[in-house]
Specification:
Elements: H1 3-15, E1 21-24, E2 31-32, H2 34-47, H3 55-61, H4 66-74, H5 78-92, E3 98-99, H6 103-112, E4 116-124, H7 125-135, E5 144-147, H8 158-163, E6 175-179, H9 182-190, E7 194-198, E8 211-213, H10 216-231
Parallel strand pairs: 1-4, 1-6, 4-5, 6-7, 7-8
Antiparallel strand pairs: 2-3
Helix pairs in contact: 2-5, 4-5, 6-10
Length: about 230
């Protein structure tokens, strides 16, 4: 790690408040789903007579929810494309589901610290909850909020408010919102939360987060440091 990156992370640790709650994005924050999303996306594009996308194009174009992005991509045929996508996705998403390294260790340590956790994703809610159950992770989360569960999807703050509904914790600086994309930073900021960009490239993202981590292990160190800071 370079001296400048190390200094940036040290400064972030001192600036971050102790979290009462942490709300996580799902895809490519806790689980690796790009291969599955890419396969289903390109099956859909091909079925609709459109050129398929490379990996970078998929990462740039599918951060939004289906109900927000499909009309822009497929126009008047977006509902037909939705059915093709769902069929393709349902056949592979549980089989291809892969936790990111150290993700479960992060969740366990956060739970052991007494911090409430939830999920806000632009993945359709029923698929999100099936995947969490498949991994046995339901015990960690108070609520898992997917696309179409709230009145509006990310980057609206509505899903964050819904994820916190049963926690008696209001959205604010002592709620961390963690995600791998600019849309997550925008969503967290809209709710008044502390935003953490989880990205292998510390310079990546677009919108400016309050803190950064390269992976689940480094995020775990940020959480531990913020908790320990209040004990010292």
């Amino acid at each position: 790690m370079s001296r400048s990156v190390s200094l940036e992370m040290d400064m972030a640790v001192h600036a971050l408040p102790r979290p009462r709650a942490i709300i996580f994005d799902w895809d490519n924050t806790l689980v690796d789903t790009w291969p599955c999303i890419g396969r289903a996306t390109n099956i859909t594009l091909a079925a609709m007579g459109l050129p398929v996308w490379n990996e970078q194009e998929i990462r740039e174009r599918v951060a939004g929810s289906l109900r927000d992005t499909f009309p822009k991509i497929y126009g008047d045929r977006w509902e037909e494309a939705r059915e093709v996508y769902y069929k393709a996705f349902e056949t592979v998403h549980l089989e291809m589901l892969t936790p990111l390294p150290d993700a479960e260790a992060l969740l366990k340590a956060t739970a052991d610290a007494g911090i409430y956790m939830g999920v806000v994703s632009n993945k359709t809610g029923k698929y999100l909850r099936l995947e969490s159950a498949q991994l046995g992770w339901d015990r960690y989360f108070g609520r898992l909020v997917g696309a179409q569960d709230a009145a509006r999807d990310k980057p609206s703050p509505d899903p964050i408010f819904l994820a916190l509904k049963d926690s008696n914790i209001p959205a604010g600086p002592d709620v961390w919102f963690v995600g791998d994309a600019a849309i997550d930073v925008d969503c967290g900021r809209a709710a008044g939360c502390t935003t953490i960009l989880l990205h292998r490239d510390l310079e990546g993202g677009g919108s400016t987060p309050h803190g950064r981590a390269t992976d689940c292990a480094s995020l775990g160190r940020l959480v531990t440091a913020a908790v320990d800071k209040t004990r010292s």
